[in-house]
Design a protein that fits this description.
This protein is mainly alpha-helical. The chain contains 11 helices and no strands.
């Protein structure tokens, strides 16, 4: 039987890894220093590797991975392919940085890694997508996790710009202005997951469903309200927004940003858990 905890771990690691991969792409295009990009790339690789391990463990028996990869319609196929592709591009990008490859090569690899990292985060919800399963029947199920990764990337990018600006001793006026803009945008962008959740709830409420089973009512005021409101709403969205908003006029603090990314991962895991319960069993990978 599939482990719900393993699926929640995959959700958390995929969002962290996706956010870090997107940050690498932004940092490469901005021309940040190589040591900063190397550290962020390493963080993304570690998170995505942990995500793959969690996805494999969720099957119960690792040998089942081969069966899942033979079925492109399965959820684990989408998870492993997107996460594995992001991991491969990140390793290639790290090698390109180490060898001093051309700017074009580094930019192409970083963009490919960032895109695949975003798809890895989106696969958290997309793995559950089943048109015939009430609660899982809308593609908007993939939006919240993807937007959590974008929100995390916004905070991490602002932090890297802050560190780069400190290393330049504030002498680069263009970098200083960009750092201030990134700091100001981090807080509002942390609310993007709330938009994704709202779109998902609207799709549940107003689009045709396979059955009349309750969905929105269970999430908003029913048996799944606690993980939905406390996990996805409070921990995953409101607390990160408050932390970034209250510190928006001060230099980005690494502890605050790391906390924001971790809370985003927790919020994603809580949302994944709540939504998975709408469909009943989480053994969904080999169904068609």
């Amino acid at each position: 039987m599939t482990s719900t905890w393993s699926l929640m771990l995959f959700a958390a690691f995929a969002v962290i890894g996706g956010a870090a991969a997107l940050t690498v792409a932004v940092g490469e295009w901005r021309g940040l220093s190589v040591p900063l990009l190397q550290r962020m790339t390493l963080a993304a690789i570690i998170a995505l590797a942990a995500g793959i391990a969690s996805a494999v463990l969720s099957l119960g028996r690792p040998a089942l991975v081969f069966g899942a990869l033979a079925n492109p319609h399965s959820g684990v196929f989408r998870e492993l392919v997107s996460t594995g592709a992001a991991l491969i591009f990140l390793v290639l990008y790290a090698a390109a940085l180490w060898r001093g490859a051309s700017a074009l090569t580094c930019r192409v690899l970083s963009c490919a890694a960032g895109l695949c990292g975003l798809l890895s985060a989106a696969s958290v919800g997309a793995a559950l997508y089943m048109p015939w399963h009430t609660g899982w029947h809308t593609v908007t199920i993939a939006f919240p996790a993807a937007l959590w990764a974008v929100a995390g990337a916004a905070a991490l990018s602002a932090l890297l710009l802050e560190i780069e600006n400190a290393e330049e001793a504030g002498e680069d006026e263009e970098l200083l202005a960009e750092t201030e803009r990134a700091r100001a945008l981090a807080a509002p962008l942390s609310l993007l997951p709330a938009v994704g959740i709202a779109v998902y709830l609207a799709a549940l409420a107003w689009t045709a469903a396979p059955t009349d089973a309750p969905t929105v009512s269970r999430l908003v005021s029913g048996d799944l309200a606690l993980p939905f409101w406390a996990g996805a709403g409070l921990i995953g969205t409101l607390i990160p927004f408050a932390a970034l908003f209250l510190t928006r006029r001060r230099p980005m603090n690494a502890f605050v940003v790391i906390l924001v990314v971790i809370l985003a991962a927790v919020g994603t895991a809580a949302f994944e858990f709540a939504v998975s319960q709408l469909g009943g069993s989480v053994w969904h990978f080999f169904q068609r």
